[in-house]
Amino acid sequence: MSTAHAARILLGKELRLEFRTRELLTTTVIFVLVVVVLFSYAFDPTSTESRRYGPGLLWIAFLFAGSLMLNPSFAREQSNDTLDALRMAPVSSFAILLGKMLANFIYMAIAEIILVPVFGILYNISLSGVVGRLILVLALGTLGLVVTGTVFSAVSAHARMRELLLPLLLLPILAPLLIAAVEATSSLLADPPELDVTWVAFLAGFDTVFLTASWLLCDYLVEE
Amino acid sequence: MTDSSDSRSRSINASIGWALLACALVCFAGYAALFIAPEERTMKEIQRIFYFHLPSWITSFSAFFVAFVANVAFIATRKPKWDWLGVAGAEVGVTGCTIGLITGPIWAHPVWGVWWTWDARLTTTFVLWLLYITYLVLRGLLEDPERRATLSAIFGIFAFLDVPLVYMSNRLWRTQHPQPVILGGQGSGLNPTMGKVLVICIFAIYGVMMIVLWQRYALERLRHEYEELRFEAESRASDAASIGKGNR
Fold first, then answer.
1. A220, B154: Cβ pair inside 8 Å?
2. Is residue A223 within 8 angstroms of chain B, CB to CB?
3. Treating both helix axes as pointing N-terminal to C-terminal, what angle do A47-69 and A131-156 enclose, rounded to 10 degrees?
């Protein structure tokens, strides 16, 4: 079975599992909303300040949400030893990883589609002219978050205190992604909006480096 | 038995010898940095911290590089010795990094007027320090030795790949740390005496770090041996207990 085909089947399994309960999506969306509300209490920003700090707030909220949401990705395979079953299936270990990455990407994307317009309304930031370019930045940033996060959720799944460990592993690694995503998003909210191509290229590079590393190391990651 | 204890006592003698040599070198380096090196024109006495600041960075980055090579080698060969070298490199690197992060602000405060600034090199080092501390925390939280070795090696590789990205992103963002003074192009260069003292200090700190690295490696090997012996003893004890039960 080809890796792409296997990954598609595994993606279907992940999505079926999630959409029975929608627990990951619900908690992620609510978590980000709580952060957005708390931010307005803590800083009481004016409209110009929102433009200045909004992208940083949004990405920090996504990173924190991701570091919580990605945790069950491998951890929930453990309660019934279902990862052993996946390993026994005639599929490559990269397909297992890829299926999970795609599923996590879809969850994050759905959460972002709900949250970004809400954020724009609450902080009085007009996003109508930049939707296409914003989607590009969000997609590249989310891909980097999901690739590293899924790998590290496989690492932390075997450890003690894994819920605490995953953010600890993930957030320092994502420091360059945060800078690039925030700068790219800021350039879109500036007046006039102009996408900073350097940062988009940087995000693409980040994604490529870690996707390649996951592909090279996936056999060791998913092994017994 | 006598052979192995002989070789062990010989290796202990050798390490004591190296340690004494390093100790003497550090004493001399301290003296040279404080009394032989000339005073810097604008920064005065505080500049002397440089003789320990730079060497600890150099050794720290070398140790992290050793850890990275060991991580890759472990993934490639699955030999436990690379795991021991990985943890030794990470711990020594974190130590050197901590010294750098402490001496840096002490130097920066009188010279730059601030303890800390979020510039490319400082931020990169801070993130690097965090990453390798996390590596050590991760090792502490993984119980099964083989799994600990594999998963921490994977994290170590990811962490090391992240370092150039952190540096590039911060570089594009902003920077304030001085450009390399030595081999740094126009207007750079050290007074010759300063250069000699610096080389002595680099050798001294490097020597100490190599000895610590080696000792830490040996300690990890002993721990591995101990764990294996204990596992064997436990399985024998449980075998004996089950046989005893069967007889009764």
1. yes
2. yes
3. 30
Model ipTM? Answer: 0.89
In degrees to the nearest 10, what's the CA dihedral of A18, A22, A28, A34? -170
Burial category of A176 from C-beta neighbours within 10 Å (exposed 0-12, middle 13-18, buried 19 and up): buried
Query: In chain B, how long is the greatest CA-to-CA distance?
Result: 88
Q: Which residue has the higher pLDDT, B42 or B231?
A: B231
pTM (predicted TM-score): 0.86
Give the list of residues 6+ apart from residue B173 with CB closer than 8 angstroms, or none.
A179, A183, B120
> Tens digit of pLDDT for each residue in B105-140?
888 888 888 888 887 788 888 999 999 999 999 999
Count of the separate structural domains present in chain A: 1
Separation of CA A216 from chain center: 21
d(C-alpha B85, C-alpha B148), whole Å = 14
Contacts of A151 (CB under 8 A, 6+ apart): A97, A210, A214, A217, A221, B154, B158
Put simply, the answer to whether A155 touches B154 (Cβ < 8 Å) is yes
B147 touching chain A per CB within 8 A: yes
Closest Cβ opposite residue B131 in set A165, A173, A179: A173
Q: What is the mean pLDDT of residues A3-26?
A: 88
Helix, strand and coil content of chain A, in percent to the nearest 5, comes to 85, 0, 15
Instruction: Please tell me the distance from the alpha carbon of residue A149 to that of residue A72, in angstroms, as a whole number.
Output: 11
Q: How far, in Å, are A9, A34, A167, A214, B246 from residue A155 at the CA level?
A: 23, 28, 12, 12, 42
